[in-house]
Amino acid sequence: MQYSHDDAELIRQPIGYWSWAAYDAVVSRTRAALAGIGTTQPQWWVLAQVARAESPRTREEVTRVLSGYLRTGATTMEEEIDTTVARGWITEDGAGRLSLTPEGRAFFEKAAALQDELWAERHAGISDEEYLTTLKVLQRFIHNTGGRAWHH
Questions:
Q1: Which residues contact 40 (CB under 8 A, 6 or more apart)?
Q2: What is the pLDDT of residues 37-83, one digit of tens each?
Q3: Which DSSP category does 146 fall into?
Q4: Order of strands, sheet of 97-100, starting from the edge strand that comes earlier in the sequence
């Protein structure tokens, strides 16, 4: 790959632009790939939260965790949960606990395989050490500017 600038020029490039450009490229690619199999990124988040939970989570628990993802918001996440229920992927009991249906499990596995492919695509030529350093640097930028990531 060819970089946009030589090292001396790269060191002076604005992190705001390059972090946004990386965000835009990754999120756009992910959303397009998920749309190709008939879902949205927030619906994938719901499926993953339900499928990977050690015990059934309530609608409120899933909404609370996911509403901060990319500033999606509680209202949007409630709508996305409703959509997964309407599509027959998830059921909700009287206490609001969410469970995958057999169709939901099959679709989750398909989407999870796609996410694994996307992970490999994004990480091509990037070592675990480089990735770890990148995340630590980005978290330091967040800290240094008084920002807060969703999990803080």
A1: 31, 34, 80, 83
A2: 999 999 999 999 999 999 999 999 999 888 878 788 888 899 999 99
A3: T
A4: 57-58, 97-100, 90-92
